[in-house]
Design brief:
B-gal_1-like, about 575 residues, Jelly Rolls, alpha+beta, Beta-galactosidase, 8-stranded parallel barrel, hydrolase, globular, Galactose-bd-like_sf
Length: about 575
């Protein structure tokens, strides 16, 4: 039996002093067929451990509907096959720039507290997730050495009864390796987010000496551990691409290790936010200001880029980490990329014509039902109402749009309304006009006090000073568009779906760009890659080689704003 433990303020593995050199790599952001390559890249950089979150909402999108739970165990096995130990962070909250911080949209009770209603759901989730972690601990012949209790809880609350319930529950479910919390290096974070008997670790991007001094002041007997060394950062739509100087990042890593600390690189390899899973953040010190949705790419300016290639940061980190390794493995070959090409859509269908095969039956209600009330995590909802009459034409005001709305009056486009800018300019037809609002959801807030937000037309519609009542609502899921019937040729108006054929001799990675198009979604061989938006900074979507096959491949995209003419394959990514 192997044992990973804490003795005299340091980590030991089988009785020998051990430095945890870890890197974050989320199994749910990387195609399963690529796990082996990415894990081998971690080993080649000089790491001995991989860390992953577990997103609850991916595995239980609706109550009792568990999906893909076994992927966590398979990933841990893949890590073991590459000689890596593992750190598991099961939540229930993970942040991770992931939709709603990993919490399912259907949760009831006061989130992230000891509210019995909330805890009942948490316990059911952990009952399903934790057995595959427990059986893979080093104490049972596996590779799991640490398990986290919640995540950065000190940034949110101070309900220690909640943390104690989680910690005791993990032990009751068989966790024998050390438990830990992770928080920012400040007194309010560490006093709110830690509990007795559970190791405390800190998260930061710079000034390690100061961070560790703060940790020491609160936990003099715990080993020094930076559980999240933020060596890069993530991007938001409409804002600049964030990068960090590799030399600065390597210098900070070297100082972390010189302090005698263990470290987890966040991220070692970011990957992509699949489908509609990207989250959102809020501006301000209290994380309650302007809403900023996260892009599809989770490249994170990590040392291993989105397609698994080493960056300058990788080589500088490898040089630093070499001093803590007897010998480093060779760096795996860089995955091949398809050659540049220009593609022309061959077929299309207007969204309105596709409703019968994509949309769910209409729900009638006095006020617009939310996405969650319609049983929809993400996608589109088409709301329909009528202006009473006869009356004069008045402006329409859409209140609390979550998150973007295309407005049609008597079937004609009348404007686009975005979250935080919710007044539709100009008058509309008066009495008896039919008003339709196509609402698109984007990322839910993943950090701070505003978790658990709803999507849809939350505040209804005002006609002049009067609320309109009586709505029909049709939910349009976007997970599966295989039933679409495309006509020959392409339409010149949006919203519409377009079909493009990609001929491939041998599958390889690709970077897909949609120049001249506006905003929408892309599917490759029926798999939803994610969102694109001409607002940037991200201009290309990463297409993993395992999604492609030799011969004909189908690319479908839904354009909401503006129709272009071609799609392009690029040899390099363009993230802004």
């Amino acid at each position: 039996m192997r044992v990973f433990s804490v003795d005299d303020g340091s980590f030991q593995l089988d009785g020998t002093p051990f430095r945890v050199l870890s890197g974050a790599l989320h199994y749910f952001r990387v195609h399963r067929d690529q796990w082996g390559h990415r894990l081998a890249m971690l080993r080649a950089m000089g790491l001995n451990t991989v860390e992953t979150y577990v997103p609850w909402n991916l595995h239980e999108p609706w109550p009792g509907d568990f999906r893909g739970v076994e992927e966590l165990g398979a990933f841990l096995d893949a890590a073991a096959a590459e000689g890596l130990l593992a750190i598991v962070r099961p939540g229930p909250y993970i942040c991770a720039e992931w939709d709603n911080g990993g919490l399912p949209v259907w949760l009831t009770g006061h989130l992230r507290t000891s509210d019995p209603k909330y805890l009942a759901h948490v316990d059911r989730y952990l009952d399903r997730i934790m057995p595959q972690v427990a059986e893979r601990q080093v104490t049972r012949g596996g590779n799991v050495i640490m398990v986290q209790v919640e995540n950065e809880y000190g940034s949110y609350g101070s309900d220690h009864a909640y943390l104690r319930h989680l910690a005791d529950g993990l032990v009751r479910r068989g966790v024998e390796v050390p438990l830990f919390t992770s928080d920012g290096p400040a007194d309010h974070y560490l006093t709110g987010g830690t509990i007795d008997g559970v190791l405390a670790t800190v998260n930061f991007g710079s000034e390690p000496e100061q961070a560790f001094a703060t940790l020491r002041a609160h936990r003099p007997d715990d080993p020094l551990f930076c559980m999240e060394f933020w060596c890069g950062w993530f991007d938001h739509w409409g804002h600049e691409h964030v990068i960090r100087d590799p030399r600065d990042a390597a210098d900070t890593l070297e100082r972390i290790l010189a302090a005698g600390a263990s470290v987890n690189l966040y991220m070692a390899h970011g990957g992509s936010n699949p489908g509609t899973r990207a989250g959102a953040n809020r501006d301000g010190a209290q994380a309650d200001g302007g809403w900023r949705p996260t892009v599809t790419s989770y490249d994170y300016d990590a040392p291993i880029d989105e397609r698994g290639a080493p960056t300058e940061k990788f080589w500088r980190f490898r040089e630093v980490l070499a001093a803590y390794n007897e010998e480093l493995p060779e760096v795996p070959a860089v995955p091949a990329v398809l050659p540049p090409a220009t593609l022309h859509p061959e077929g299309s269908v207007l969204l309105r014509q596709a409703l019968d095969v994509l949309a769910r039956p209409e729900v009638v209600a006095p006020v617009p039902p939310t996405f969650e009330e319609l049983g929809l995590e993400h996608g589109l909802v088409l709301y329909r109402t009528t202006v009473p009459g006869p009356r004069e034409p008045y402006p329409l005001t859409l209140r609390e749009v979550r998150d973007r709305a295309h407005v049609f009056v008597d079937g004609r486009p009348a404007g686009v309304v975005e979250r935080d800018a919710e007044v539709l300019p100009g008058p509309v037809a008066g009495g008896f006009a039919v008003v339709e609002v196509l609402v698109e959801s984007m990322g839910r807030t993943n950090y701070g006090p505003l978790l658990g937000e709803r999507k849809g037309l939350l505040g209804g519609i005002l006609h002049h000073q009067q609320y309109l009542h009586g709505y029909g609502a049709r939910a349009i899921p976007l997970e599966d568009v295989s039933a679409l019937a495309f006509g020959q040729g392409t339409v010149d108006e949006a919203p519409a779906f377009f079909r493009t054929v990609l001929e491939v001799t041998e599958p390889a990675d690709a970077f897909l760009m949609l120049p001249g198009w506006g905003k929408g979604y892309v599917w490759v061989n029926r798999v939803l890659l994610g969102r694109y938006w001409d607002r940037g900074p991200q201009r290309t979507l990463y297409v993993p080689a395992p999604l492609l096959r030799a011969g004909r491949n189908e690319i479908v995209h839904l354009e909401l704003d503006r129709v272009g003419s071609v799609l392009e394959l690029r040899a390099e990514p363009d993230l802004g």
